[in-house]
């Protein structure tokens, strides 16, 4: 039995993603890596859990598994089935092809894999490479390796995952630091493409526009715009505590 920390790696781009491979390779010096990833692209499936059909696990190589389900299914089955009795110390999801910033976190399969790890009591990190491809994962992979080294040493606060976004760097340029950030807000315009199919019926395509966001110091978007790696601590209690006073009259007067 090896004393190496057991690390579960997953993603939402699927088992064949070179971002997944870059992450697993970068983490290999730091622990025993087990990959459990969707058997195909599952981006933007959010935190979906498959409950209405059976799931199959396929061992495609030693310590490399696919699941015909979502990123959440992968982490759940990874911890509760594949690694049953051998609890991982970390779940790391990525490296995603594309940003997971601000409100987009709520759609993200990449971040949801880390949410599932967090819900199951395992420290979790999501890593995304900003850009629209072709992707160079060198900086993100190097950073992920150094980050998990620190997290393995110091741990994370309870119920908190780290959402990491790495800017795209040209020709060996280096990041302008690492920023601890809060979730920013995307500017949702009319980012819908409406067209007509060959049979005369309208169809729609969501999200055709480039990244646009509300400027805000301290946000993940701002850090990225400055060329820094963004690290956002996220917890899963979505309660709006600041609204309690305003809402008390609404719920306080029912007979
Ligand atoms: Mn993805």
What do you see in this structure?
The protein is an alpha/beta fold. The protein has six helices and eleven strands. The strands form two sheets. A nine-stranded mixed sheet has the order 3-4-2-1-5-6-7-11-8, with helices on both faces. Strand 3 and strand 4 form a beta hairpin. The chain is globular. The relative contact order is 0.14. The structure holds manganese (II) ion. Manganese (II) ion (MN) binds next to strand 5 and helix 3.
Strand order of the largest sheet: 3-4-2-1-5-6-7-11-8
Going by helix content, strand content and strand pairing, the class is alpha/beta
Q: Share of helix among residues?
A: 25-40%
Strand content: 15-25%
Q: Helix count, per DSSP?
A: 6
CATH topology: Stationary-phase Survival Protein Sure Homolog, Chain: A
| Residue runs with pLDDT of under 50 for 5 or more positions | none
Give a quick summary of the entry.
This protein has 255 residues and is α/β, with parallel strands linked by helices.
Map the helices and strands.
Layout: E1 6-10, H1 18-27, E2 32-38, E3 57-61, E4 64-67, H2 71-82, E5 90-97, H3 109-119, E6 123-129, H4 138-154, E7 160-166, E8 178-180, E9 192-196, E10 202-206, H5 220-225, E11 229-235, H6 244-252
Parallel strand pairs: 1-2, 1-5, 2-4, 5-6, 6-7, 8-11
Antiparallel strand pairs: 3-4, 7-11, 9-10
Helix pairs in contact: 1-4, 2-3
The structure holds manganese (II) ion.
């Amino acid at each position: 039995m090896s004393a190496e920390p057991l690390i579960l790696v997953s993603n939402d781009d699927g088992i064949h993603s070179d971002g997944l491979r870059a992450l697993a390779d970068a983490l290999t010096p730091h622990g025993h890596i087990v990959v459990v990833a969707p058997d195909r692209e599952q981006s933007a499936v959010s935190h979906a859990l498959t409950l209405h059909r059976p799931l199959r696990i396929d061992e495609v190589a030693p310590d490399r598994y696919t699941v015909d389900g979502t990123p959440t299914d992968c982490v759940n089955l990874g911890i509760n089935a594949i690694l049953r009795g051998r609890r991982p110390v970390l779940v790391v999801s990525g490296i995603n092809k594309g940003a997971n910033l601000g409100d987009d976190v709520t759609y993200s399969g990449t971040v949801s894999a880390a949410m599932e790890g967090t819900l199951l009591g395992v420290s979790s990190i999501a890593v995304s490479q900003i850009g629209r491809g072709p992707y160079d994962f060198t900086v993100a992979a190097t950073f992920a390796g150094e980050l998990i080294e620190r997290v393995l040493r110091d741990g994370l606060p309870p119920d908190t995952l780290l959402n990491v976004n790495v800017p795209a760097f040209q020709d060996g340029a280096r990041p302008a630091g690492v920023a601890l950030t809060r979730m920013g807000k995307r500017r949702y315009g009319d980012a819908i493409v409406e067209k007509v199919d060959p049979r005369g019926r309208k169809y729609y395509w969501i999200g055709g526009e480039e990244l646009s966001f509300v400027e805000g110091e301290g946000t993940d978007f701002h850090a990225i715009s400055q060329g820094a790696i963004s690290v956002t601590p996220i917890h899963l209690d979505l309660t709006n505590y600041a609204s309690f006073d305003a809402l008390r009259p609404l719920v306080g007067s029912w007979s």
